[in-house]
Specification:
Radius of gyration: 22 Å
Largest sheet: none
Number of domains: 1
Number of helices: 10
Length: about 260
């Protein structure tokens, strides 16, 4: 059922048709982009579960059998993410291999990753955020180095991605936030650091973990409203002034009093 739901929204992006959904737009935009880049023309109706795709090129949006495209590719990335995260935390190769094999043979993860769903995209950003945070923590002995800035910034990017797919991504934001508070508390208690250096640490985290994700999150919606410029099933959720900007709407280009 969800594949007919989000696959249809991918078609809306390809056709630039405005719609409304309870989830933020990033996941559906990426599904639409994957379909567009792989040659899908956005004409499949997605009316009910089980409808055959026939001649429609849907391979780019999900993986089927041996094909691992986009959703399936993102789902497969969870395995190395788990491996690298556990290896970094435990420094134990057997523990890292065990974590990777648990995901490789997890039926739920395999199933979720072969359909047009938001879940593999969400899990990709969730685990990406945790991996980036762990990698950044490993660079604590060389703060403000290129690798430290890279992993800190990548953590912020993944946080924006997680929140941009589903609001449940807020939980990884809270997780990273608690880790950041703990780090700053330890730095504040380090008497060898001056307040100026501590202030730099604080500003770096505000920049990469608050301002950068917020900027990316707002940009997602800017792209969303720019791409969807044609009248569609989501018009009625918005004001008359907004509807007047949608091509094909009854109010298009009509003068709307303030």
């Amino acid at each position: 059922w969800d594949e007919t739901h989000f696959g249809k929204m991918g078609s809306y992006y390809i056709n630039r048709t405005f719609f409304f959904d309870v989830h933020p737009p990033l996941g559906k935009m990426l599904i639409g982009l994957a379909g567009y880049l792989s040659g899908y023309d956005g004409t499949f109706p997605f009316q009910k579960p089980g409808d055959r795709y026939e001649q429609h090129n849907y391979m780019g949006m999900r993986g089927v059998r041996l094909y691992r495209l986009f959703c399936a590719f993102l789902g497969s990335c969870l395995v190395p993410f788990a491996y690298l995260t556990v290896l970094e935390l435990s420094k134990s190769l057997p523990a890292a291999l065990l974590a990777a094999f648990i995901l490789i043979f997890d039926t739920g993860c395999i199933t979720l990753s072969q359909y047009i769903l938001l879940d593999p995209i969400l899990m990709f950003f969730l685990m990406g955020a945790v991996l980036s945070m762990v990698k950044c923590n490993s660079c604590a002995d060389r703060p403000f180095s290129a690798s430290w800035w890279f992993w800190l910034s990548l953590t912020g990017v993944n946080l924006a991605g997680a929140m941009g797919v589903k609001f449940v991504g807020l939980f990884v934001v809270l997780f990273v936030g608690l880790n950041t508070i703990s780090d700053l508390w330890d730095l504040l208690g380090d008497l060898s650091l001056s307040l100026v250096v501590f202030g730099k640490h604080l500003l770096a985290r505000v920049l990469c973990l608050i301002l950068l994700p917020l900027a990316l999150y707002v940009t997602m919606f800017a792209v969303h409203f720019t791409v969807l410029n044609k009248s569609g099933p989501g018009d009625g959720f918005f004001s008359s002034a907004f509807q007047s900007q949608l091509i094909g709407n009854n109010l298009h280009n009509v003068s709307i009093p303030e």
